[in-house]
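Troubleshooting: if your tokenizer reports a length mismatch, compare against these two reference records.
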Amino acid sequence: MNSRPVPVEFRSPDDTVLDGLALSTDHTIRYPASWLPDLAAGQSLRIGGVSYRVRDVRSVGDGSERRALLTRT
């Protein structure tokens, strides 16, 4: 990936989901598909100075948004 900063919604395992009813178990990012159209499994990225490897990328809803599962490296 190039080094341009892109704003994303980042969730780590300590984040609550479902209005506080559960804890997230994965590192994930959500973002508009047009912002990172080429993001794919196996690529590396940095969030807050921490390196992650993309495990999977899936479209959300009508495909205009994507969710990527990450592994901390």
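Reference record two:
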Amino acid sequence: MKKCFVRVGSVSYCFLFLTSADYKSLEEQNAAIEKPSKLELMSLSQRKTAECDAMVDAKSKSYG
């Protein structure tokens, strides 16, 4: 019985592993990951820069 579960699990794992990549090459997979990551990093950078500028402006107004 355990061998049956191990075999079914192995077949399921292999099926999911082979079909999860959508038959894309490694370069295509990396590009698909890289593009949204770069966009998210750029968005975060812009947001944090705006927050920092607002904080600096607020502090400079409170001193002046």
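Descriptive notes for reference record two:
- The CA atoms of residues 14 and 20 lie 10 Å apart.
- The mean pLDDT is 86.
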